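Researcher: Go.
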Amino acid sequence: MSALAVAPLTPVAADPTLEDFGSDPWWLIGGKVVAIFAFLVVTVLMTMWIERRIIGRMQLRVGPNRAGPFGLLQGLADGIKLALKEDIVPRQVDKVVFVLAPVMAAVPAFISFAIIPMGPTVSIFGHQTPLQVTDLPVAVLLVLAMASLGVYGFVLAGWSSMSPYSLLGGLRSSAQVISYEIAMGLSFVAVFMFAGSMSTSEIVAAQQDRWFVLLLLPSFVVYVITMMGESSRIPFDLPEGEGEIVGGFHTEYSSLKFAMFFLAEYINLATLSALATTLFLGGWRAPAPISTVWAGANSGWWPLLWFLAKVFLFIFFFIWLRGTLPRVRYDQLMKLGWKVLMPFSLGWILLVAAIRALRNEGYDMQQIVIVAAVVAAVVLVATVLWETFRGGEDEKEIVPRAAGEGRRTDPAAGGFPVPPMDAPHYHGVRAGASKTQTPPEEVTSGTN
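Model: Structure:
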């Protein structure tokens, strides 16, 4: 009786630590996994409905409003329709890889969400457990590993389809992810420096006083850009460019196999948004006005509400960009990843490391910040001036010219190839003749 009387008075830590994981009973772990799976599936259905309604409003359209109240069941109707469609498998494909590729794309997206903290330690059927499936000393690196593994599904889908359009989409996906995952990983380094850990639960605990989005704003901006490239959505949806490669790596897929790719895209959207919330927006912690006024805002089940609000705010940001920006060119995409984001991330890491080292030595932080801001401004201005006076020489091509010819402009310089205007035949018309004259093929056939 004495033990039972004292037990409720024992304080329970609100912030989970690595020691809190691994001691839950099997049924509780299984329940968490099922809950995460159900949450992601429902999030995909809700995201599809929200995206259609918001873009419909942006484009002065109604959006889905037939299936269910306000069209809420439209995503479920689309899923059932995909499941009932005929599963067409082209004759020449590698069937084993063709079937495994959608699974390899979708499964890592589910696994990544297991290390996302959705709330503090709560009581579930009398057991004190964190609102998180598991945590690792290198939990953030697990997300990067799963994202890299998911790309294999896209590449193998393009290769096994035996279609040039699918193969180009798979190659674009691999090149795009390589470019952006390096910059994304570099944006995490500053967070690791300030948190002193790669564990997601400890990173959230380190933001108790101030969110990292305020301290590490450049890292947050780099991550937001790279997460758009990671998700392969507009403006960085080059692997699925309909106007260039029909549909990309999933051109030959239909029915449930296509639905798996569709599911993987939207789950990656939720995972990237949840990771941004965890690393930069305080995780499940309430915003400053709420947390200062209400003492219990960061305890119990209320933090789950703050976490979901931040995640759906990021999802709205993705949708807003899709309805606003056009698709960029592939060369612009690669140049942004390799020539802008990576050098900037490396310079920012060196600056943060220098500031942290000087702070540990006892130097005045105000002077350090001022000097760092001046140095960053000088470097930025110098870079802009260099690009301005340089005139983009790396995009120009030197066109050879024969003796006696004037300078000829290369129509493919700085963009995609276009038919040269001074070619011998242009749109089937002889050089020097008007478009109303008889084409050459009709002259040679005697029909003039």
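Model: Confidence is low (pLDDT under 50) at residues 1-13, 425-448.
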